[in-house]
Amino acid sequence: MANVHRGEIEANIGGVKRRLVLTLGALAELEAAFNSHDLTALAERFGSGRLSARDLVRIIGAGLRGAGEAISDDDVARLSTEGGAAGFVRIASALLAATFGVDDRPLAEAPSA
Asked: Between 91 and 100, where is the model more confident?
């Protein structure tokens, strides 16, 4: 079960209920992937509400690895979730909100396909 006080969330990805958390190591991974100089820059990038599919793969992959799952971004890219792309947006949004304590409405209100 996810512990929201530690920034954890649960999501059904690939037909499996999984835990995700952006640990300090996972955040460092994202800083490197997005060429961000610090956490503030990373939060601002995510807060823009403009994320590509590749961004979603990186965020969700880092969250899964932060929770201890040995999974590559390529493996994450092959998974599915309820709601398709909009479902992945909701998962990433919830994970970022749990990590940064921000309002997740802009990302969660993605149009449904």
From this structure: 91
